[in-house]
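User: Can you model how nicotinamide-adenine-dinucleotide sits in this protein?
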Amino acid sequence: MSQNASAAPANTPQAPIAVEGFDSLYQMAVSQFARAADSMGLDKDLRLMLSQPKNEIIVNFPVRMDNGSYQLLKGYRIQHNNILGCYKGGIRYHPQVHLDEVKALAAWMTWKCSLSGLPFGGGKGGIQIDPTKYSQTELERITRRFTHALGTNIGPDFDIPAPDVGTNSQTMVWMMDTYINTFGAAHKNVSRHVVTGKPVSAGGSEGRDEATGRGTVYTIAAWAQEKKFALDKATFVVQGFGNVGSFAAKILAGEYGSKLLAAQDHTGTIHNAKGIDVEALFKYCAEKKGIAGFPGAEAIAKDDLWKVKCDILIPAALEAQVTSKNAPTIVASGVKVVAEGANGPTTPAADKIFVDAGVDMIPDILCNSGGVIVSYFEWTQNKQGDGWYLDEVRAKLKRRITNAYDRATANREKFKTDGRNAAMITAIQRVAHAYKERGIFP
Ligand code: NAD
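Assistant: Here's the modeled complex, given as structure tokens:
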């Protein structure tokens, strides 16, 4: 029986979570868009059209728990924009999942896919649950009922989910299998590319598991090349040691020789001034489901993470972690660049502090785009019936994400602006161009 069996139904309506200076995360995302739109003088009609998602799908569905009781769960799928292609974006299982949060994440997917030059638009989905409180069999039934409830709102040539916080390749296989079993027989359709982030055995791509972390590191490498900064002498700190943070740390330390000084996840915060053995931490975390208690480092207080003197800070946990409260501490700790492995980890107030202090920013829509780029490779391989080798995937990822970095950098110079705004302008330009060419129906 799950620990959750006697808990109250998890579909209690929840107010949007305010983010420093904004009523919700979506308002924060809109403000980033508006700032870039102002900088580039975006047409007012386009601003209006892009200010809201195209579709907001909310489903309520019952799920049987292991003890025979039922819960009614609320699931979201937001389809922000599809002018460039199918909606694309992750599915999140987390207690904070909320309509406004999912809207923000979907909007960022539109900008991320555009910036990466992918034939995708933006989407995002989720369920407001704490997945650690459910058994595997309950998670399977939750995922299958959610997929069934979404029905044809997702599809291999319409809207393609992927993993995000609290979901993984197993979740994607359940989604794929449910979709194929629901629609496959009727439509003679066994489209495995209805989701990406699948295990390789189920049609996933080599290198998808490491892709977001690897992409994060490739953008850090592009920054280091631009700034003539030696990564083999660099130190870094990572917040979040899940899919993104752990692979970013492993690759930055293992392949580029940088030293990890501190890490934080939901179980604890650890520090070692001489450097943390990332391979050992990676294995420890996989086994213990968290980094707390790792013998190769000392436990420190949660807020002391930001005080650790280092060159590179990688927030790779959740949104709104870096605010005007801790940004001055981060500046004082000598950080040279913030590489946003997570989506929306930095508030606009913190952005301003970094700009004023000369701290560089590799923004989320660029920094963590490796995940959706390799998801695109997976989708392409599925459509072609192909399977690429790992070295091909890595080389194509590096080329595509470095190209996006270079295009954003060119706009940073052209518009005399900061890293976030430049990336956003670059992303909006492609979407705006597509609207201009196609016009508005009818
Ligand atoms: P994950 O669930 O694998 O890991 C999340 C990590 O954050 C865990 O280590 C968890 O312990 C930690 N965490 C959670 N709450 C925390 C807190 N309050 N303080 C400190 N640490 C906390 O998720 P992930 O897939 O690695 O995603 C992390 C971020 O990266 C999210 O913002 C996600 O949207 C973004 N992202 C993920 C992908 C992907 O491919 N997985 C792609 C692009 C962006």
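A couple of observations from the model: The chain has two domains: 25-30+45-202, 211-367. The pocket of nicotinamide-adenine-dinucleotide is lined by residues 163-166, 212, 239-245, 264-266, 316-318, 341-343, 368, 371 (CB under 6 Å).
User: Helpful, thanks.
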